Amino acid sequence: MKKLFLVLVLSLLVVFSFGKTKITFWGFMLDDESSAKILGQFMKENPDIEVEYVQLSWSNGFDKIVTAIAANNAPDVVELGNTWVANFASQKTIMNMDDYAAKEKDHYFGWTSVEYDGHYWAMPWLLGTRALFFNLDLFERAGLDPNNPPETWEELYVAAQKIDALGDDIYGFGMPAGENFSPWQQWFLPAVWGNEASILSKDMKKSLLYSTKVIETAKFYKALSKYSLKTKQADLAKAFGEGKLGMYVSGAWDISGIENNYPNILFDVTLIPKPNKWSGYHASFAGAEVLAITEQSKHKEAAMKLVKYLLKSDVAMQITKLVPSVFPSVVGADKDPWFEDHPMHQVFYEQNKYARPAPSHPQWFKIQQYLTEAIEKMILEDQDVESTLRYYNLKIQQVLNH
C-alpha cells in the first residue's frame, strides 16, 4: 500500500513538473535582480507557467531578435523599442493585438507607439518622453515669473529673447544639433505635430514636409534659433547645469543628472509649449518600451498572461522607481505615492498623454536623416526655410516612392 502511494505521489510530481508551460521573455529593462523579483512573483501567482528571462543589450539586442526569428527560435514575449515595431509588424513576425487593444484602449496611453498599417502589434508598457526644463534664477533675472513658465510658442520666444539678453555667455533656449536623432526628436518634429500637422501623409505615401503648417513651424523654429545655443544634447544639459541656458527640452533622465552634478542650480519642468492658447497641443516625442508576442510562440495564451501582468501599474512602477525616466502606460498610475515625492517626474507622466512616436514607416531611419539635415541647414547655416523644405520634401518623397 505504501509502495502504491509513493508511486502515485511520484507520478503526480512528474505530471506537475512536466505539465508546466515554459515561456521565454527577452527584454532590456529588467536586470537580474528586478527580473528575479518581478517574474518570481508572476510564477508564484501562475504556478503552471515557468518564465525564462534573457536580458538583451541595446547595442546588439535588435540583431539578436532578428536572428532568432530567422532561425525559427524566437522568444514568446519580447520587449521592443517603439521605433522597431514597424520592422517586425511589416514582416508579420509579431502577433496582431487588435482584439486586446479594442478591450483595453481606454486603460492605457501610448497606443500610437504600437500601431502600424492601421493595426496594433504590441502593448505599450513603459513610456518615456520629453518636457521643458527651465532655470528659475534666469527667469527671475530676466523679469519673468518662474511660477508661470511658457505655455505657448510666443511666450517661449519672448522668454528666450529676454534671457538671451542677460549676457553674451547666456542663451535663452537650447537646440540640439550635430547629432543623428536629437535635432528632430527633442522638439522640431513634435512642434510640427503640436501645430496639428505631419511630415508624412496618413497612408505614408506622400511627403508633407513642404506644407503650410510645417513651413509655419520651421519659420518659428528658425526665429527661435537666434536666441538659442545650438549644440549636442549632452552639451545643452551641461550648459543648463552651469546656469548658462534658460530653457531646453529633454527627458526625465536629466532630472537626476542635473541634481547630482549641479546641486546649486534651481530648475523645474513643465509641459512643452503649444502653438497658441486656442489651437494645437503640447506635443512631445514618445519613446516607449512595448511588449510583443511573436508569431512563432507556441504558448500565446501563457505569453499574454505575462504581458498583462507586466502592464499592471504596481509592477511597472517597480521599474519606474529603478529607472525614473520611463513611466507606466496605465491610466491613473500617477496616483502612486511615489509621485508625491517626485513632482517633476509627474510632469513627464502627464506629458506622455500628448506624446507621439516617430512615423511607423519601415524606411524611417533614412527619412529622419533627411529631416535632420533640413533642420540643421536652417538653424546652423541660416538657409531659407521654404527652399530647404522644398528640397528635402523631394528627397523624402523619393524614399517613399521606392
Automatic annotation (TrEMBL):
The organism's place on the tree of life at top rank: Bacteria
Coiled-coil residue spans: none
MF-aspect GO terms: maltose binding
Example GO BP: maltodextrin transmembrane transport
An annotated GO cellular component: ATP-binding cassette (ABC) transporter complex, substrate-binding subunit-containing
Matching InterPro entries: SBP
Keyword Methyltransferase: no
Keyword list, A-Z: Signal, Sugar transport, Transport
Keyword Transport appears in the UniProt entry: yes
PANTHER family: MALTOSE-BINDING PERIPLASMIC PROTEIN, MALTOSE_MALTODEXTRIN-BINDING PERIPLASMIC PROTEIN
UniProt similarity note: Belongs to the bacterial solute-binding protein 1 family.
This protein's name: ABC-type sugar transport system, periplasmic component
Organismal lineage: Bacteria, Thermotogati, Thermotogota, Thermotogae, Petrotogales
